[in-house]
# Entry
Amino acid sequence: MMLKKYIVGSWLLILLFGFNACESFLEEDNYSSITAESYITEDTADDLIVNIYTGLRGAYKVYDVNFYGTDIFTTKGAFYDTNALNEYFNITSSSGGSCWSGNYTIVSYANTAINRYENQIAWSEGNLTKKAYGIAQAKALRALAYYNMVQQYGGVVLELEETSSIRSDYARSTEEETFAQIIKDLEDAIPDLLVSPDFGRISKRAAQHLLADVYVSRGYKSFGSSSDFTTAAALAESAINGYDIRTQTFGEVFDFDNQENDEVLFSVQYGDGGDYVDRNNNKHAIFLSSLIDYVGIARTNPYGRTDFGAMPTSFFYGLFAENDSREEATIHRVLYANENNTYVSTVGQDVIVPGDTVIYFPKTAITGDELTEALNRYWVYNPDQYYYGKPDNVAGAIYQYSSNVVTTNFPIFKKFGDEGFDETEGGYRDTYVFRVAETHLIAAEAYLKAGNQEKALVNINRVRERATGETNYYTAVTIDDILNERAMELAGEESRWAILKRTGKLEERINLYNPHVIDHGKFDASIHLLRPIPASEMELTDGSLEQNFGY
# Structure
């Protein structure tokens, strides 16, 4: 049975254990005979594990620190506008805190589960395997949360026990110690995880995928070694486990009705239940323009309403070759009307009915008479017009750029398209965390860093072949090749910032491809390769929590 069917019931656990996950407590009379101690038995213990999975939803709706300030995403404002995380301009300790809080929620839930499994629940002999499986899931998810944080903040507070009292003496471990704990948790977990669990639970292969990525990241560190890359490659091969990604197209992987497919190693589950229980994913809304301001697109429409200030860069759109099937599955180059309306300009008017083209973004610029003819029927924005601003009007065309109230026009994302959403919220598409295509790219990077070009090529070419039909497209592979393939394959799924950081390519690529950084970026490698510890966390300690340099 799928995990999402269990998530509604886990909200009782949030109420029962919510106080244990906080730093402050309320004293109240107990008007119910239900307590944490009486509710949790070996028969109900799995609710503790399901509770950890619910915490993933918040952690994987953290978009700012993962996408801003990268080569493939920038802001939708004018080039002179400022966004601290995008241009590394006046970043303060109030920036990017949701990554910290979201992932420590997972850590807290995992610590509670591990403690109760090990010390509270009376397990019968016949359920010891169930006990081991629950602890393995909790440790793997705790490792995932700590890995999300160590990439952003460096060394963090390694809290491995259930919170039972108010404390203010938290201190950070080193980055090396944090990596060691992540590896220990995963190595402890993998033997007791299932190969084919219920969809939505972390599997043995998903944990191997994660551990491979951890070893690749550690391999770049001063405390890492070249053996980390060979270890990562072997783990990635185990996670791939012979699965052939060519058995389904990229588009099929993202088909809304095919989310539980064999390529997905791990995903954050949603469902079609009530709002804020199962239907609260907003990922469909994160790379959209102001669609409801186009004449012919109603407030309720098939695309959604924008809920994030980022957009793809021109560099991203330019990566896709003509024969790359990922482009069509990733972005909309045509947006269609879903209401009757009439566009009126000083030149003329155009009657719009549902199904008509509202705006077209050609891959190759169209000009001259072809552009004029098209602008008599719908908006056209060529590739050099995607950013903020209004192009010059085309004489005689009905659609006059000066009258478009949408000032930033760009091909919006398609691959996260959802159903049943309420504008920005209410979606119930699952969020993919790990896919086998990414495992191939992790393997390619690991083999490359280990000096094995041949096997690096096998893995990157497998991903490229699925996208284009071309075999052996690459005859040599570089880190830039892998980063470009990751951009096309995993845009909006991976933490692009963390990948650029680990490969040492962040500063180079934002200075080449992020237009706002090019205009007025203030990136400083001595500061900005780590995020600030949130001010709210600093204020809760007695001075023991050390802030990252420069903040």
